[in-house]
Amino acid sequence: MRQGHGVMASSMFVIAVLLVQGCAVKWWASESGQEGPTQVELIKEPAIKEIPPDDGLLTGWRTSPATQSEILSRNATSLTHGTLGDVLFDFDRDVIQMEAMRIVEANAKQVLHEQATGLLLEGRGDEFGTSAYNLVLGERRARNVKSYLQDLGLSIDVKTTSYGKDRPLCFEHSGDCRQRNRSVHFVVQ
Length: 189
Hints:
CATH 3.30.1330.60
């Protein structure tokens, strides 16, 4: 009879552990001290662990030559004096690096100087990983740039979108081109 209780106790312990793990929720504490559950974006796609070597087998982009031409012409900003720089990101990252912060700051000054009323921030990814993964990564990049612009005090209408890897700024299969596509592009509206 004692063995039956031991097996039952260990079974209950295993079930309790599984329930705790299955019901785990991440919590955050706001600046006011209130706590609540975090909202976590879950992507069913695996994170990209490393940059694959250049592959001669990579074929063209999903976009046709006509669409490529349209994208290249639309990517030009509509400022009267000067252009806005693209904010570049490290491979598989959405954190704005120090050099990129300087570009965001310079763009904010230029937009204010030109008295623009709106911006569209287009987030992108390179050709590695799935379309779904790069869409989410591009959106995170664009939102981080928008947040930094708001922290700088830019008070114009700023919208974000993501094109992931499906509407690249650069269409070559090179390291420089991939770097250009890991970006947030500013479009004055």
